[in-house]
Design a protein that fits this description.
Layout lengths: L8 H12 L4 H8 L3 H11 L8 H11 L5 H4 L1 H12 L4 H10 L10 H8 L43 H4 L6 E8 L5 E7 L5 E5 L5 H13 L8 E4 L9 H6 L3 E4 L9 H10 L14 H12 L11 H8 L17
Parallel strand pairs: 1-4, 4-5
Antiparallel strand pairs: 1-2, 2-3
Helix pairs in contact: 1-4, 2-3, 4-10, 7-8
């Protein structure tokens, strides 16, 4: 029997299309050459609360599940040792100090901070290990009065972007933002700095996990040279940005607070998008096709900065496909 193969992005696209046509799980499995159990598990794992299946969110969820678990989750013996010592009244600092001495044979060293992070990790909620800490609080407070309020870790300032990226001299450098509409439901927007191509994806909520999952799914479909970097503002929605570096090989940068001009490309794109998506727009009344039609309208509109080529033409040219799009009726593309 052959080894199991994970579903690809293309297969997830087909699953969504076939499900929308009303095909059964067995029929979808037959069309893809997969077992019905594989299709059933995919739909069960990644369906939205409404029952709908969206391939971009499904792909992003799969990428998130592939993350390596925490050190203490990968080493049961070490986890048992830490848990036992906590139950005996040891502090994380004492446990880490003992491990660092190397006298506990067969157990690796982990830092005090690693132990604290593990205790308060969502996956550990049921264990309630925080009860063993001196203060016994379920939520972790500030460790030092001078701690920064910034909750986004491992940020690299936008000034450290390469000169070619900053000057829009090479493609593959994106800016990301959210467009918020009625009931605070956002649309993720990605804007390519050189070609001005704009990609859009509707989100169900504003969590950092969902935002980065959808972003990874979108970027993963681009060729490696076209996912060089992404620049963000300081919204905590982008707090899990580091996953882009590990899973889709994209460098991440952050602007200064309240300095929207440092990512002016996407600010301009968002202003254009507001023509179709004002803050009062009800996204529940719009389909995914409606959202993509807005993106396509933007990408087919010629821009002066591109020599009056459209972003689609400019982006395809960077991929080596010189295409001129004619808008005359009944006239096909010219290459």
């Amino acid at each position: 029997m052959g080894s199991y193969r994970h579903l690809t992005a293309e297969e997830r696209d087909r699953i969504a299309a076939l499900q929308a046509e009303g095909q059964s799980v067995r029929a979808i499995a037959q069309a893809l050459g997969r077992s019905p159990a594989t299709i059933s598990r995919e739909l069960r794992r990644n369906a939205l609360a409404s029952g709908a299946y969206r391939p971009t969110i499904a792909e992003g969820s799969y990428l998130l599940r592939r993350q390596r678990p925490a050190v203490l989750e990968r080493d049961p013996a070490l986890a048992d040792y830490v848990t036992d010592r906590l139950a005996e009244g040891w502090t994380p600092e004492q446990i880490a100090g003992r491990l660092k001495r190397g006298v506990e044979r067969g157990l690796r060293y982990v830092s005090t901070e690693t132990i604290y992070a593990w205790i308060f990790r969502p996956a550990q909620k049921t264990a309630k290990l925080w009860r063993y800490l001196p203060r016994g609080k379920a939520k972790r407070g500030r460790r030092r009065a001078r701690d920064s309020k910034d909750r986004i870790r491992d940020k690299v300032h936008v000034s450290e972007r390469s000169a070619s990226a900053a000057a829009r001299a090479e493609p593959g450098h994106w800016e990301a933002d959210l467009v918020i509409c009625k009931h605070a439901r956002p649309v993720l927007v990605l804007h390519e700095r050189k070609t001005r191509l704009t990609l859009m994806a509707r989100l169900m909520g504003k969590t950092a996990a969902e935002t980065i999952a959808v972003m990874m799914a979108v970027l993963k479909r681009l060729t490696m040279p076209m996912r060089g970097s992404v620049t963000f503002d300081n919204d905590t929605t982008f707090a899990r940005h580091s996953l882009l570096r590990g899973l889709v090989s994209a460098t991440t940068y952050f602007c200064d607070a309240y300095a929207s001009w440092q990512k002016g490309g996407i600010e301009n794109a968002n202003g254009r998008i507001r023509r179709w998506l004002p803050r009062t727009a009800d996204l529940d009344a719009m389909t995914e096709a409606d959202i993509q039609e807005i993106a396509m309208t933007l990408n087919l509109t010629p821009r002066k900065c591109l020599g009056f080529r459209s972003p689609v033409e400019a982006f395809l040219a960077e991929l080596g496909n010189n295409v001129d799009i004619s808008f005359h009726r009944h006239v096909a593309l010219r290459t």
